[in-house]
Amino acid sequence: MTGDITLMRTIGLMLVTAAVLLVLARRLAVPNIVVYIVGGLLLGPLLGLIETDEATGAADALYVLTHVGIALLLFLVGLELSFDKIKDIGKVAVFAGVGQIVFTAFFGFLFAIPLGFSVLEAAVIAIALTFSSTVVVVKLLRQKGELLSLYGRIAVGIFLVQDLAVILALTLLAGMDNVAPEEGVGGLPPGMLSQLGVGLLKAGLYMVVLAAVALFSVKFVMRPFFDWAARSGDVLLIWGVAWCFAFVVAAERFGLSLELGAFLAGVSLAQHRSAGELTRRLGPLTNFFIALFFLSLGASMDLGEAKAHWLAAVLLSLFVLIGNPLIFILIVGRFGYSEKTSFKTSVTVAQISEFSLIFGAMAMAKGIIDQSILSLITVIGLITIVGSSYMILFNDGLYKWCKAAGLLRPFRISDQEDEAAPEISSGHIIIVGMNALGRGLAKRLSEEGRDVLAIDTDPRKLRGLPCRTLHGDIEHEEVAEEAGCDRAAMVVSALQIEETNRLLAWRCKLHKVPVMVHAFDGSVVADLKAIGVDELLDSKTLGSMLLVTKLAEEGVVDP
Length: 559
Fold this sequence. Notes:
By secondary structure, the protein is mainly alpha-helical.
């Protein structure tokens, strides 16, 4: 009982602290990850309000909860890796992603050795420096409205390549048996290379088997079940989480990392049409557990050890903030992109990732590094994530300054504009709710040659329509963004859900997009008119008109 109370107290303190700091940091555009780590530092090393090594069992329970967050995060990453996306990454993303990984790992290792780190420590540090933060960058680009810009799309493609590298790194760790600290910290222990080779071979073989099982199951065995689950968002969420942890357990049985099992589960479901809706529903749950992970990471930091490596932290942070953009400018520019596009792409990768911290934590659990090295990686993460965030937010001004100062001249890249607007839908008609009314409208407008997008939470209702379709809940902001509600010629709701219709109408009026809503009941008419709905759709009247039209076409009545 004492452990349960302690756990609840610890989680409560963490969440309250994070909530207060998020409010304070909102105006400064500080990424959430940084806020969580700083919150952990306040609660742990600085104020001593929570302990991470208590013997009451609360620390173990918190450890389990944070690793649930890691598993869900890797599951989400896997859900983004549909084969269509991988196919469409393009040469620039592959070459830039691989080139940066090789450059950063190689020179990061050479840079770390003279700073007094052992071979294993330098290797872990170098690998941790190679990953860039998908979570931070995507949120910042979405905040700027540039996620679909040319450089934004290139950056996202690069992150997909890096996500695959993350899995290879985690597989590498999974293939290693625990290394005693006195052996691993001082240098390579006897037989380490042979042990690593055998372990990596076994881990790679098991990973291939697990991936084959996951993909085969979703395609040939589980597809009807997930089709059924997709009819309800809540059921889909439960099935998705269950699928994730089924492969977490399977990975553990194979001696692999739980992160790898969760990732493979996500990749397998990424090929299913409900992957987007599952991602949107899983996001808030994942954010909660990830917040606990980074809060716990900050609370467990040893500031004394971190101070001992302050010079290394500063130098390695500068290496990431400056070195990564340099290699990306060179690679992206060689593919014919303009100086501006190359520069803006390069600054998106000038940070280390949340996966760098996860990789460091796993390496410490294996006995390869100690707490001081993990604290060093965490400090580098704080510095680079904060620094690169402002580089991304103010990349236009930074580009103009660098260009005026002549800093980009040595790269000899064309400065002609190639920031072509992405091909996104506009001027289309969105119809929400594929009941009889919605399907009838979608078919009729499509027959008239209009660009129609049909949206529904049940994928079965979208089948057979002669127009574009989107599976999702229009209440989710991400669905509204993907549908292009702010760029539509008109939005029509055939739904009989009062709250959803109100929210949709309010969003449309906010973007000055005409909206027509199904007035399925007389009680909702006054509220919809107060919001400013342009037209009210009376299904009974419309049905009567369609019936008369049909009878006239058949010659039963006069037109």
